[in-house]
Amino acid sequence: MARGRGDQEESRQLSRDMVALRGLSVVYHQKNATVEALREVTFSVGRGQTAALIGPSGCGKTTLLYVLAGLIPATPGEALVNNGPASAIRRQTALILQDYGLLPWKTVWQNTILGLEIRRMPKEQIAERGERILRELGLWEYRQHFPAQLSGGQRQRVGIARSLALYPDLLLMDEPFSSLDALTRENLQDTLLGIWQRDRVTILLVTHSIEEAVFLGQKIVVLSPRPGRVVAVLENPGMGQIGFRKDPAFHQLSNELRGLLGQGAWTGPGLPQTDLKGKEV
Ligand SMILES: Nc1ncnc2c1ncn2[C@@H]1O[C@H](COP(=O)(O)OP(=O)(O)OP(=O)(O)O)[C@@H](O)[C@H]1O
Ligand SMILES: [Mg+2]
User: Fold this and answer.
1) 240 and 233 in contact (C-beta within 8 Å)?
2) I want to staple 220 with a disulfide (CB 3.0 to 4.6 A). Which of 120, 158, 234, 270 is the partner?
């Protein structure tokens, strides 16, 4: 059957997106209760783009990353990564969790090259790639240290180093900098921005911080309280500009986002109101 204009439009759109969610809903089934985490979430992230996902606690942000990492099935709805169904065996997807899962009994070096060893990469290549990544992230001097001997910021860097060593094309990050002080946090945001500007890896970053969302997201997806629905998708064309943190556009968008996240954003028509625990009222 001949493909209609709509189909062609759709496939052209598909090929540009690294991440595409369509009508994604997730319900957790427990013994005596069901928890609706996400409801009909639709948005996309273009190849090489960055997107920040922001919303109140418990609205399903981590759940959404798990779906994209293939750890939770996308039903009902659709979750595509690089035009295929999200899958846990997709090697180019890296999921960076809040605690990084560093192995405490292994050194910085051993933690960094773990994934490369699991994939049985030749020793010389491991040595070359591991050194390059650790130098890039300012960790080379710490390669013999164990995680307990590092600061919080350094530990986060090891987690990022370990993921980057695998040359992902999609980085899913779950509040990666949330436990850090403001300066360390900005420093790591700059590092991540630099890596993105060089490699153009697609990044979907979950954050609670308005400034972080505006600094790192070319697109900012705002979710409602549970069940998480898309309240707004903001475009952020100034992201990545030198000195963006001091730019009026940065503050304007931060304020807009603050307004959206404050009261009222999810009490509009068509969206059920929720109480503080996320229960529908
Ligand atoms: N395995 C599970 N079984 C049942 N309910 C779950 C499970 N995992 C998460 N939930 C519930 O689903 C909802 C969404 O959880 P999720 O962790 O995705 O939220 P979040 O937006 O990441 O929250 P936070 O900002 O606090 O990290 C929450 O109400 C949570 O209690
Ligand atoms: Mg979470």
Assistant:
1) no
2) 234
Our answer on whether the CB atom of 105 is closer than 6 Å to any ligand 1 atom is no
- Tell me the whole-structure pTM to 2 decimals: 0.86
Exposure of 238 by Cβ count < 10 A (0-12 exposed, 13-18 middle, 19+ buried)? middle
25, 63, 66, 226: residue to mutate for ligand 1 pocket, most atoms within 8 A of CB: 63
| pLDDT at position 148 | 94
Phi and psi, residue 20, nearest 5°: -140, 120
Q: How far apart are CA 56 and CA 244, in angstroms?
A: 25
Residue found by looking up tokens 């994604």 in the block: 24
Residue 178: the pLDDT is 83
Query: In the chain, which segments carry CATH 3.40.50.300?
Result: 38-92+169-267
Count of other CB atoms within 10 angstroms of residue 250:
19
* Separation of CA 228 and ligand 1 centre (Å): 10
Query: Structure tokens of 81?
Result: 């990564």
Ligand 2 centroid to residue 192 C-alpha, Å: 20
| Res 229: pLDDT | 96
pLDDT, tens digit, for every residue of 138-190? 899 999 999 999 988 899 889 989 988 888 999 999 998 887 888 888 988 99
Q: Quick one: fold of 38-92+169-267?
A: Rossmann fold (3.40.50)
| Cα–ligand 1 centroid distance for 178 (angstroms) | 17
Q: Residue 61: CB within 6 Å of ligand 1?
A: yes
Question: Which residues of the chain, if any, have pLDDT below 70?
Answer: 1-15, 263-281
Q: Is residue 97 within 6 Å of ligand 1 at its C-beta?
A: no
Q: Whose CA is nearest to atom 3 of ligand 1?
A: 28
